[in-house]
Amino acid sequence: MISVMIDHHQGDFHLETAFEAGAGVTALFGPSGSGKTSIVRIIAGLARPERAKILFDGQTWIDTASGLYVPTHRRRIGCVFQEGRLFPHLTARQNLRYGRFFAPKGEPMLDEGEVIELLGIGHLLDARPATLSGGEKQRVAIGRALLAAPRLIMMDEPLSALDRPRKLEILPYIERIRDIVRIPVIYVSHAIDEVARLSNAVVLIDHGRVVAQGAPAEIFPEVAGLSDAMVPQSIIEARLVGHEDYYGLSIAELGEDILTLQPIDLPVGTIVRLRIPATDVMLALNRPEEISALNHLLGRILTISRDGAHVLVTIDCAGQRLVARITLLSMERLGLKEGLMVHALFKAATVDSMSVFHGQDPNAGS
Ligand SMILES: Nc1ncnc2c1ncn2[C@@H]1O[C@H](COP(=O)(O)OP(=O)(O)OP(=O)(O)O)[C@@H](O)[C@H]1O
Fold it and tell me: Is Thylakoid there in the keyword field (predicted)?
């Protein structure tokens, strides 16, 4: 568990944050310039704050009140940045071993072979960074960080320099670190798809302050207004119940309802996390017939809030929150109000991010 309290000025910018991060992946998420990198630099010991108290597993790393400051190398943090920062004159293997050089003696360490296997980089070991793709470089950089026996991994926009196919290639490896290596990760990003997929906790940062923190399903419906680019999203967890080979679809259940999804290459019974942009959800008062959208969920309106010229309608669907962003005009025409039952519709194709839920299946064993 890391506990962070920072009060620091840089130029006109005031960083005033407090949050805690436990096991798994905690995302620091927020618009550009909100202060995410500044927080990472202070935690890592790369910048010295005016006032701060940072504790990791009960050990004080910084306490400006008592003048305590643990130097960077003694914090044992594995950092991965946007550009992997590999040494260009060393091979991938030598870069990996450079990480090991920093591992303190007597500490339990990950086995080099296991890390190579975990990250799928066995065939790259003799290559130099110049001949590796962006995604391959990042996998080596992650391996180097892991081999230094870190107690905490911090990743600052590790995928933002990569195109979408490279991103999709590397995400499963970060999931493996989360699920297999189980070192806590602080993950900085302003990409909602990455954060929705990877994180089990989100700290939402805006103008240097923590504006919300919690599970992705609580935070992502609330991002309206932070930046024009951020569309509120629903994060829903559902259980895979089948694969339909002929139509190339997967089927999941959410309460009494069935969801039809693009194919998910995971076994039946797996809990999957689905991300649905609020702009892709339509609402109807009656169950529509003869409509192409395959997914119809019946739910009760919890809240309606103004979002510029639009409204955000939050619906309780089998105990999970689904948000729809519709025009004020549509809301008035339908006479939507809190407590009303509505049908929420969305296409299979809009559900474009999914991953294994890494907590306990709430229904397991019951
Ligand atoms: N060394 C510095 N001196 C003065 N101001 C700085 C310094 N470094 C960053 N800033 C300012 O602090 C604010 C926060 O920057 P920071 O890089 O932490 O944001 P961020 O959320 O990581 O942004 P991005 O997602 O674009 O990387 C910005 O307004 C930035 O201009």
Answer: no
- Ligand 1 pocket, 12 CB below 6 A? no
Separation of CA 302 and ligand 1 centre (Å)? 37
**Ligand 1 center–CA 71 separation, angstroms:** 23
Nearest CA to ligand 1 atom 17: 37
Rounded to the nearest whole angstrom, what is the distance from the C-alpha of residue 32 to the centroid of ligand 1? Answer: 8
3-state SS assignment for residue 129: helix
Q: Residue 104: count other Cβ atoms within 10 Å of its Cβ.
A: 11
Looking at ligand 1, which atom is closest to the CA of residue 188?
22
Q: Is 10 in the pocket of ligand 1 (CB under 6 A)?
A: yes
Atom number of ligand 1 nearest to Cα 11: 4
Residue-level pLDDT, tens digit, the chain, 366 residues = 999 999 999 999 999 999 999 888 999 998 889 999 999 999 999 999 999 999 999 999 999 999 999 998 889 999 998 876 889 999 999 999 887 776 777 666 778 898 898 889 999 999 999 999 888 999 999 999 998 889 999 999 999 888 888 888 888 888 888 888 888 999 999 888 888 888 989 999 999 999 999 988 888 877 766 666 678 889 898 999 999 888 889 999 998 889 999 888 888 988 888 889 999 999 999 988 888 888 999 999 999 998 778 999 999 999 999 999 999 999 999 999 999 999 999 988 878 655 554 443 333 433
Boundaries of CATH 3.40.50.300 in the chain?
2-215
Q: In CATH, what number does 233-356 get? A: 2.40.50.100
Kindly indicate whether the domain formed by 2-215 is annotated with CATH number 2.40.50.100.
Answer: no
**In which residue ranges of the chain is CATH 2.40.50.100 found?**
233-356
For residues 115-148, one letter each, b for 16 or more C-beta atoms within 10 angstroms of the residue's C-beta and e for the rest, the string is: bbebbebeebeebbbeebebbbbbbbbbbbbbbb
* CA separation for the pair 257, 47 (Å, rounded): 51
ipTM of the complex in this document:
0.93
Q: Which residues contact 212 (CB under 8 A, 6 or more apart)?
A: 202, 204, 218, 219, 222
